Amino acid sequence: MSQDLVMGIDVGTYETKGVLVTAEGAVVATEVKAHTIIFPRAGWAEHDAESTWWGDVAAISKALLATAGVSSADIKGLGVSAIGPDVLPMDENFQPLRNGILYGVDTRAVDEIAEMNERFGEDYIFNACGNALSSQATAPKILWIKKNEPEVYEKARWFVDATTFIVARLTGRVVVDHFSAGSHHPSYDPWKRQWNEELNDGIVETSRLPELAWSHEIAGEVTAWAAKETGLLEGTPVTVGTIDAGAESLSVGVTQPGEMMLMYGSTIFMIQVTDNDQARDKRLWVAPYLFPGTWCLLAGMATSGALTRWFRDSFAAELVAAEEAGGEPAYAVLTKEAGESSPGAGGVIVLPYFSGERTPINDPRAKGMIFGLSLTHTRGDLFRATLEGMGHGIKQHVDMFTDIGAPPHTIQAVGGGTKNPVWLQGVSDISGVPQQVAPLTVGASYGDAFLAALALGWASGPEAIRQWQGTGSVITPNADLADTYAPLHEAYTALYQATKDQMHKLHELGY
């Protein structure tokens, strides 16, 4: 029996997720495929674009069809998203010329950031694109390729991010959405909605950057070659798509000014929709949101799930082994131990700068820290402190949004971290802000499916995602803990300021 379905696929840092959804938003099937991140050296982070980005999309598409027992003819549209902003040089046949250089977790272009700031001026860059340069910026990474891998630079017909690469493979069209382009600092002018010729001068010709469109627009149709690779029907419409954070934000109903998405993924990412395109701060990022006439503020911490994974693998190897042997999940045990630690983790403070830091300090040379240890502390204290450290970072951001006149009135929490009750409650207790958790936390792939439905005319507008989602739960701050966390937050903030010079010295020594 035939069905009318849309497919959504999202390529994340450590795994790719896919979903099949009906026109009413009901999930028919899901698939997940794990992959690895490549760390060639300290401060570098890459993906193999061929095997991870494209290979995962092809595999997930075929797996969804098989799991659901549906025909390729049942799939009426496809939406895709992926991590970003990335830099992938590819040739005219959409073949990668090197591994994809990842978003802000890759901090290799420190010298190029300094070079561009010196050449153009920090204030000029900020006024031209609304963003200060950080490890999130893509133009310095393109400049790094130009200086360090000139043969790759010369061969490249295009410099793209992961979503654009996937859509190009599917449809033959090289296009990026305005929300994603808004994260390509300082290449894109978010007010004129076009590439900035002046700020790309000497770095890359804008003709080697993708065409621009909106996330929900149709990029093209699945080609005959892509149909064989993915199992989809030739001619299936494909949306332009977006960065995973945008798709995830949409998936839980963040569409209106004052609504914020807080994503607990491999990194922490925040998107706040605003109706003021002049609300900005050098510690934050700005961009058009997913749809015409919308605007948003963005922020991102460099580690989140990546840090909890490091903790698990470094300090709980026996729990991982027990899980692999059929025992209780390692994270569940660690969360239980953290729950037995008191709020404040016995005075242990963790600076989560284990891969530098993006916002609010924008310091790729920052180092992680575990401070306040004594012989009385347990593994549970340390894991709780790790979770609370990210909570203190989130509070810094909530305070920043408030300071510039854009306080969030609704926070939608999404991602794997929402399954950790100690973490979720700790963030609300530290920040003093309630968090809503949507009933369907499928993730960015669900937002991708909605974009496809929107493109097909199955949904009346962006707000229709609320009908897909329904009503979720709310995490309320414990006001009695405000006095516990206030001095610890003050210490958290002061620790970085007191140690950053030594952090930078370690970086200069190659550590």
Describe the overall structure.
This protein is α+β, with helices and mostly antiparallel strands and 511 residues long. Helix 2 packs across helix 3 and helix 14 packs across helix 15. The longest helix has 27 residues. The model has no long low-confidence stretch (mean pLDDT 94). The strands form 8 sheets. Strands 18-19-17-16-22-23-24 form a 7-stranded mixed β-sheet, with helices on both faces. It has a 5-stranded mixed β-sheet with strand order 3-2-1-5-15, with helices on both faces. A two-stranded antiparallel ribbon has the order 4-7. It contains 18 helices and 24 strands. Helices cover 39% and strands 20% of the residues.
Features:
globular, about 500 residues, about 40% helix, alpha+beta, 24 strands, seven-stranded mixed beta sheet
Short overview:
The protein is an alpha+beta fold and 511 residues long.
Distance between the termini: 60 Å
Strand order of the largest sheet: 18-19-17-16-22-23-24
- Mean pLDDT level: 94
Structural class: alpha+beta
Please mark out the parts with pLDDT under 50 across 5 or more consecutive residues, or reply none: none
Query: How much of the residues is beta strand, in percent?
Result: 15-25%
Largest sheet: 7 strands, mixed
Radius of gyration: 22 Å
Number of strands: 24
Shape: globular
Percentage of residues assigned to helices: 25-40%
What is the tally of helical segments? 18
